[in-house]
Amino acid sequence: MLTIQGVTGGYNGRSIVKDVTFQIQEGEFFGVLGPNGSGKTTLLKMISGLLPLIGGSIQMIEKDLSSYSSKELAKIVAVLPQLSGEAFSYTVEEIVQLGRYAHQSGLFQSLTFNDDHIVEKVMKQTGVYEFKNKLLHELSGGEQQRVFLAQALAQQPKILLLDEPTNHLDLAYQKELLDLIKRMTKENRLTVLSVFHDMNLTALYCDRLLLINNGKAIKVGTPGEVIQEKLIQQVYDTQVKKHIHPIVPKPQLAIIPEKLNDDTMFVIDEKFLQRDEESLVLKSPLPLKAMSSAVINPGVGWFQTFVNRHVSKDYQCENHHEEMAEYLTAKGYPLTNTVGMMTAVMMEDAVWKYINSEGFSVFIVVTAGVGNAVDASRGVVHSSAYLPGTINTWIFVNGEISDEAYIQGIATATESKVKVLHDLNIKDPRTGTIATGTSTDSILVAATQKGEYLQYAGTIAPLGKVIGQGVYDCIVSAIKNSRTRMDMK
């Protein structure tokens, strides 16, 4: 559809874009990224025919760009520029009608029935039909941008060129506009090339990307191939961290700010832990990065309050999220900042242990009972009805750990739990086989993210060794506490 081969060009004979090559397929949403002054807009102007080439070639639909007349080009290519502060004293319908100019002919050019039909159709597609009799300056910025998109679509182009289309738009209008354009690529096979500044939006909506710097193509590929930490840090000269969007398989970047007054060192240990008959609560002086399977705020996040709440063995779990949220709120624990678990174990049976190692330390807190023990390999014979969990494990690391260390830490702790049940000969009452846990166990790994960097937490890594032994010892002691108390009844 569009082939850019060795393109070089700029202003007044000076090359801004230098030997850039890439291709765009029909129906593709292609994004161009790069720092300010990298040549993004210059490249777009050359593709639209506004700037001549110094070198190279541009092919559109297997035909050289230079061979098209202005009117022929307008039937193929439409341009949606940056939204400016200027607004025209024309109605929405009149502005959209301008998009039909390239398709009109004759000395006295006027709109045909077909033109009117197309104008009405694109106004409805872009959601501006209800404004058709309003003046442009009466509309919001997002509504104005949709009007100009309708004008571009009225040309019935095969290629749409966009120059920072979401500039000056708020979040809702950004999503609305890009959703609409993306839909056009799927439904109408519209080919889109867009310059972006927002890297995360670009990754979400574009099929492929061109990263350009100092006028040169640095990388062409899918968002996952182009948006790489080292590459982006090199081109933009700023620290970033790559992560995955929580809903769609697209990369996102987080900017890493300069650390100001952020060197406060603290150690999570029992002085931050409170226990009463109803709960165990740990309150950290600063947010901890946590990964957990908790009832409230599972997954990954930054939290300061951690609650393990005792509930009756007869507790009904059908609406446990809502009920637990109400409980935490009533206790004054903010849901945005709290990880919440529940257990049928009595709080007096809880065990904790602080372990100091070379360069880091770990604080482990466990509640454990085995009243609803289950062999995971024989889970199919059990009812799917949930019972309150009994083995809840908290692991607080005083150090900085990697993403893989969070996962490895959970795996190491789980292996230790299974070994405890094996060594204590705890059986699944339904199957008679050795249990591997209880039906609703929960686990948490949280770290201060300050101090020594710990890459691994597998069973033989320094951190893994501490977690493995510490969790084993705590679960053994917690189960013994529970059994002793039951025997005394």
What can you see in these coordinates?
With 489 residues, the protein is an alpha/beta fold. It has helices spanning 40-47, 70-76, 92-97, 113-125, 141-154, 171-187, 199-205, 223-226, 229-236, 320-330, 403-423, 462-488, and strands at 2-11, 14-24, 29-33, 55-60, 63-64, 77-80, 159-163, 191-195, 208-213, 216-221, 240-244, 251-255, 273-275, 279-292, 299-310, 338-343, 351-357, 360-367, 373-374, 392-398, 400-401, 437-438, 442-447, 453-454. It contains twelve helices and 24 strands. Strands 13, 14, 15, 16, 17, 18, 20 and 23 form an eight-stranded mixed β-sheet that branches. Strands 6-7-8-3-9-10 form a six-stranded mixed β-sheet, sandwiched between helices. A four-stranded antiparallel β-sheet has the order 2-1-4-5, with helices on one face.
Indicate the overall shape.
Answer: elongated
How helical, in percent, are the residues?
25-40%
Major sheet details? 8 strands, mixed
Structural class: alpha/beta
The low-confidence parts are none
As a percent range, the share of strand residues is 25-35%
- Give Rg in angstroms: 31 Å
Number of strands: 24
**How much is the average pLDDT?**
90
Oligomer: single chain
Q: Helical element count?
A: 12
Distance linking N and C termini: 80 Å
